[in-house]
Amino acid sequence: MTRPYVYLVCVLFGFLTLSCSQDYPATAPYTPTSNPNDPNTSPGQFPRPEAKRLYLSNDKVKVGIDLNMGGAITYLAEATSSQNMINNYDLGRQLQTSLYGGPYPYSVNGKDPVYVWRNLGWNPVQAGDYYNHPARIISYQQSQNKLYVKTVPLIWPLFNESADCIMEHWLELQGNTVHVKSRTTVQRADTTQYDGRTQEMPCVYTNAPWYRQVTYTGAQPFTNGALTELSEHDMISHYTTENWSALLNTEGRGVGLYQANQFRFVTLASGSGQVGGEFDMTSYYMSANGFMQIDHNGVYEFDYTLIVGSLADIRQYAYSQPRPATLPNFRFTTDRQGWYYYNVHDKGWPIQNELAIRWQRVDTTRANFRVCSPFVFWRPTELPKLYVQAAFTTKATTARLVWRKPGEIDFYDVPERYVDFPIVGDGQFRTYEIALQGRNGWDGIINQICLLNPENNLEKGSTMRLRSVTATQP
């Protein structure tokens, strides 16, 4: 297994002076010499494209993207070292954007997914595909400390199949950090709205010497509390309360991944050992791995920062950034604010001052539906009430707020984890005040909430138009 996906087991900144700007054609496809459906075959057995790198560097960091690998980051090192941290065993490694949507399995243009990755679904990968075909570069720009690249990604499990989206990436070198902005513009012919899924925003694969997986998972973030060092070889998601994770070598130096307001990170060891270079199979992995609801015509942006240096450098950077929100203030004016759905749909993109949700199950054979928030860090002692501004059109007379806590693998619909509140189904906007203080289970740390219909009322035409979920009355 070369790309560790959990699915197998279940703004814009400008350029001051451009030194180059040109279009770059795709590499011609080839016929593989191995059978991709052979379980003993890995993408590393297909020939890799020849490197064509562009670099940024200063006295702290050197970073490089590869125009023959979709403009993904293929090189990252401290300025005083010639050791590349980034693994390039195949085109599913690197440091890049990889997104996921339905359906799965996903087939198009008469092509079926390679069997081992059949459950990935619609999976555009910035660098290329399983067969080591590189993604096509549309254009790129470079200045002294900035890079821009525009890419047509490939669908990972399919043979040389361009994804129906465009990815853009802006990189900026600042001291010992690389700030990256990613934007994906989706243009799918399939207008079905699928359930929200976790995304790799981004994924980071380091070479074997950067094997130490370090983060903070405690309940007292930003207080220099004891860190957690991980050693699992299974894909493990972590509730990371300081919004960063790191891959380090024996000396405690390496790369940190910071993403503002992101609490869900994933780490993995692929292979074993502490010796190996960028084209060896053994690598170590981390990802900012939040959920995202992807529309057929949506535009999706996220930012992240790579911090190169010591563990102290990485944590110091995270501590220097604005603190994540500690109370809810979700106002759905132009986007979903990280909210996503399970077995329920909304009206899709663009979002215009509300989430217009069909308040009924898409698939009546599945037990429930959920309208889910992103991961958060809230102390119930600071949140005695929650305000939901919504208009319901339904025969149902109650809605349910469900919450979960760190360490719980899913929402539990038990009395200690929910509260029902009365609603009026006449289609008029109201602010529903939900009293939470003193309720059994409303304690400790809350890391996610969701809304659902406890009556599972299935009449067609039921809707919830959701404007905001806040700690104060809107």
UniProtKB/TrEMBL annotation:
Residue ranges, compositional bias (Low complexity): 29-43
Keyword Signal: yes
Record's keyword terms, sorted: Signal
PROSITE patterns, per database record: PROKAR_LIPOPROTEIN
Position of the signal peptide: 1-21
Annotated stretches, region: Disordered: 29-49
Name of this protein: Uncharacterized protein
Annotated source species: Spirosoma terrae
